[in-house]
Amino acid sequence: MTQPETQIEAPSKTVVTVTKADLPLTCPRADDPTTGLHPRVAIPLKNPGDEASCRYCRTRYRLVE
After folding, report:
1. CB neighbours of 59 closer than 8 A, spacing ≥ 6?
2. Which residues, listed in sequence order, are joined to residue 17 by a DSSP beta bridge?
3. How many domains does the chain have?
4. In which domain of life is the source organism classified (predicted)?
């Protein structure tokens, strides 16, 4: 039996900067044209400089002041 190839995705180069006004943050965001492509997940950002990635689409989010 042939084993299917496992594809490893490279981390996304997309970095979305957000402010405290955008918190609490979810991916995809309500204004994102890709809404509905994957389940909505919370992105844990608390302090300026924090970064986190969506586990589905690998979009990176960075909290700025």
Report:
1. 12, 14, 16, 27, 53
2. 62
3. 1
4. Bacteria
Q: 5-54: per-residue pLDDT in tens? A: 654 445 557 799 999 999 999 999 888 887 889 999 999 999 999 999 99
**22 in any annotated domain:** yes
pTM of the model: 0.74
Q: Are 16 and 61 in contact (CB under 8 A)?
A: yes
Domain coverage including residue 39 = 15-63
Query: With contact defined as beta carbons under 8 Å apart, do 54 and 41 qualify?
Result: yes
The DSSP output letter for 47 is S
Residue for token pair 């992105």: 43
